[in-house]
Design brief:
This protein is of the alpha+beta class. About 30% of the residues lie in helices and about 40% in strands. The chain has a six-stranded antiparallel β-sheet.
């Protein structure tokens, strides 16, 4: 299953607040993005120099994972970075099987479409797809 970790401010508090939800569905993931306070976060980012974001993580029992990090940079848009670790390897490097992909700025709508593969694919198929 997929877990989500995300940050944004609540009310007038200038500090970012961490949120997490475990074992979410694709519909839940889309709702997290849709409910994000885009306008206020962008304004507060300009004021404080830091902003929130999202990490959607598919974890495997053997320690492998796929992490889709979506970082807002505009109104309903952001950078999408994908990190897929099929095998951690010895000491985190020998025999490691991983791939990272950095996408250009994409819309929140396109990020949700791209993220769907976390819910529909295995870790191995994601690794093979982006390798």
């Amino acid at each position: 299953m997929v877990d989500v970790y995300y940050q944004h401010r609540v009310g007038n508090n200038p500090e970012l607040v961490n949120f997490s939800r475990k074992e979410i569905t694709y519909r839940d993931a889309c709702k997290v993005i849709d409910d994000y306070p885009w306008e206020s976060e962008l304004a507060l980012f300009e004021q404080h120099g830091e902003g929130g974001g999202f990490n959607f993580v598919l974890s495997a029992p053997d320690g492998g994972y796929a992490d889709y990090q979506f970082t807002p940079v505009g109104l309903n848009e952001g950078f999408l970075d994908l990190t897929i670790v099929l095998r951690k390897g010895v000491l985190g490097m020998f025999g490691r099987k991983s791939v990272s992909v950095n996408c250009d700025v994409i819309s929140a709508r396109d990020a949700k479409i791209k993220m769907k593969e976390l819910f529909d694919s295995s870790l191995l198929s994601l690794y093979e797809q982006y390798r």
